[in-house]
Amino acid sequence: MRVAIFTGSSAGPQKHLEVATTFATALARAGLGIVYGGGKVGLMGVVADAAMAAGGEVIGVIPRHLVDQEAADHGITRLEIVASMHERKARMAAVADAFLALPGGAGTMEELFEVWTWGQLGLHAKPVALVDVDGFYRPLIEQLKVMSDAGYIKPSYLGSLGIVADADEFLRFVASYQPPPVRRRRGQGEDLG
Ligand code: AMP
Prior knowledge:
- The chain is of the alpha/beta class and 193 residues long.
- It has a single domain, classed as 3-Layer(aba) Sandwich (Rossmann fold).
- It contains seven helices and seven strands; from the N terminus they run βαβαββαβαβααβα.
- Strands 4-3-2-1-5-6-7 form a seven-stranded parallel β-sheet, sandwiched between helices.
- β5, α4 and β6 (128-131) form a beta-alpha-beta unit.
- α1 (14-29) runs parallel beside α2 (42-53).
- Adenosine monophosphate (AMP) binds next to α4.
């Protein structure tokens, strides 16, 4: 089984580095492969280094135009260089069996929400979770509740997003995951990439 990890291309506070290291180490020791953005920078790089150091399988998927900017890591198990951001995300989604967002910025959010909404549309039935380090994602979780209360997100769908504190909790979430009912609208396209 492989987990795609979305996280910052910047480093963030020390606590985030520690959690990223602990998480990646625990997943690798549990025998899970890691799929990530392929860069050496920020928390992304921390995740890859920790998983490799723990003897894990690490697959990086990076678009050609980011190879220099995100310092593509050629020391991981397999580095795939693809043509575009869209190809990167589609490839990560295809290779992974579950998705996890550690702290990050706009890119991390974009990746998280894309896979979560793909699940809502029934394009996959894989678990998606968020690691809330010291309340980092609390305002985001609150906003999702505001959206749900206003009728924009079904409670069953909101409940499908895992919110976990550590790797054990994530593994339990994945093991017991039941995909939410698929939301469909008439005339809606099926192919998002
Ligand atoms: P960030 O959280 O902004 O540091 O970005 C984390 C990862 O998301 C990096 O690998 C970025 O290359 C990637 N990223 C940044 N912007 C986008 C975007 N618009 N769509 C998809 N991925 C992105």
